C-alpha cells in the first residue's frame, strides 16, 4: 500500500473508530494473541468480543444469577 493509500486509510480510521490504548504485562500480549488465533480471531476481534460478552453479562439482572462457589454466575 502506498503512502496516499495509507494516509487515506488512517483518515478513515480516525473518523470511524475510537482507539483505546491497552497496557499488559510483558509477555501477556502474545498469550492473549495466541488464545485468539486458536479460535480463529484477531487480537482486536477477541478483545472486542470479550468486552461485548462481559458488558452483556454485567447487564444481566441480579435475579438471573445464581451463587456457586462464592461467585455469581448467569
UniProtKB/TrEMBL annotation:
What start-end ranges are recorded for coiled-coil regions in this protein? none
Share an example GO biological-process annotation for this protein.
Answer: regulation of DNA-templated transcription
Q: Matching InterPro entries, A to Z?
A: Arc_rbn_hlx_hlx, Ribbon_hlx_hlx
Extract the SUPFAM superfamilies matched here: Ribbon-helix-helix
Region Disordered: start and end of each range? 51-74
User: What protein is this chain from?
Assistant: Arc-like DNA binding domain-containing protein
- The organism named in the record is Butyricicoccus porcorum
Amino acid at each position: 500500500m502506498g503512502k496516499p493509500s495509507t494516509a487515506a486509510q488512517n483518515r478513515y480510521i480516525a473518523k470511524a473508530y475510537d482507539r483505546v490504548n491497552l497496557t499488559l504485562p510483558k509477555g501477556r500480549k502474545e498469550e492473549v494473541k495466541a488464545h485468539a488465533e486458536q479460535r480463529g480471531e484477531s487480537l482486536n476481534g477477541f478483545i472486542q468480543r470479550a468486552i461485548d460478552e462481559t458488558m452483556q453479562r454485567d447487564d444481566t439482572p441480579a435475579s438471573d444469577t445464581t451463587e456457586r462457589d462464592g461467585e455469581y454466575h448467569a
